[in-house]
Amino acid sequence: MNIGDKVRFTHGKEQGIIRRKIDERTFEVEIEDGFLIPILKNEIVLVSSEEGNKFNPTTKPASEEAPISPTDGVFIAFDPFNDRIYSLVILNDTNHNILFTINEKSLVDYKGILSGTLKARSFVKISEYKLNDFETWPELYVQWLTFSQGKAQYQAPLEKKLKFSPASFHKSKRHSKLLNRSAFLFQIDKDAIKIEPSKIMEQIEEHQSPAAIIEISKPTSEVDLHIDKLIKDHQALQPQEMLYIQINHFEKSLENALASGMENIVFIHGTGNGTLKNEIHKKLAKNKMIKFFKDAQKEKFGYGATLVQLS
């Protein structure tokens, strides 16, 4: 099997294209909804060239075209640049101009990525994200004001927080008239929250008060990341969804361990095909607050756990 081959899963209905060779036993396969899934070589088979025609994303039958997006709204869109990179775009499909700010939420604070004015019926590219890194895409925090020349009904400033999950993301694909192509669209003005200046000032004063106390939930010294320990009824989840849940639990536990002053912590990730372990190690390697990390007690965990030294 080679990169680009069309394959079918032997233990499921999924079909897709081989995008990357992870190791001698494992491939990364892009399934029809655009997600990349690690899978063992012996769990996929090649399909014929005739069957493979349906995998070509540019030759979908008219009946399978993405539905048309609603108009008159403000949208965050992920516009596929290719099969691996998505452009993050804000669309103003309304009759008024907007003044906006967009931030990414990190572990401890927010990082501004773009601000500006967006005219009516226009859009602007914000950033780019790799589909391979979907489980680590940040939470987005958008705020905006509306402006119309002449007489217009007053609209309060608005805000919206967005966190993306595999289960809901692929269902959001629509054809955008503004972009003139299909993209993954999220309307943000439909359920937006009004910004109340008085409450903002209260939050600022509370944050600045020396009496304000933030409670940290200190994790146990050993955190088990096996999916059956984190969620019930996990059998219905796709591998990418399980990985997202596991990584999210890992990040929260690590953040709380650092905040609570723990000296070290063990993450039990199992062996499997190594995907979860590799993702954890990549994140630990980038964290400047980590002293070092290594395989935990091999006599107890084998190669299925990682010890993280925090201080």
How does this model look, in words?
The protein folds into three domains: 6-55, SH3 type barrels, CATH 2.30.30; 66-208, Immunoglobulin-like; 222-309, Ribosomal Protein S8, Chain: A, domain 1 (2-Layer Sandwich), CATH 3.30.1370.110. Mean pLDDT is 81; it is low at 49-64. The chain starts with 5 loop residues before the first strand and ends with a strand. The chain has a five-stranded antiparallel sheet, with no helix packed on it. It is α+β, with helices and mostly antiparallel strands and 311 residues long. It has helices at residues 49-52, 166-169, 197-208, 227-230, 239-259, 275-286, 298-301, and strands at 6-9, 15-21, 26-31, 36-40, 44-46, 73-80, 85-93, 97-105, 110-118, 122-130, 139-147, 158-162, 173-176, 181-187, 193-194, 222-224, 264-268, 292-295, 305-309. Helices cover 20% and strands 36% of the residues. The chain has seven helices and 19 strands. It is flat and about 75 Å long.
Care to give the gist of this entry?
The protein has helices spanning 49-52, 166-169, 197-208, 227-230, 239-259, 275-286, 298-301; strands spanning 6-9, 15-21, 26-31, 36-40, 44-46, 73-80, 85-93, 97-105, 110-118, 122-130, 139-147, 158-162, 173-176, 181-187, 193-194, 222-224, 264-268, 292-295, 305-309. With 311 residues, it is α+β, with helices and mostly antiparallel strands. It has three domains: 6-55, SH3 type barrels; 66-208, Immunoglobulin-like; 222-309, Ribosomal Protein S8, Chain: A, domain 1, CATH 3.30.1370.
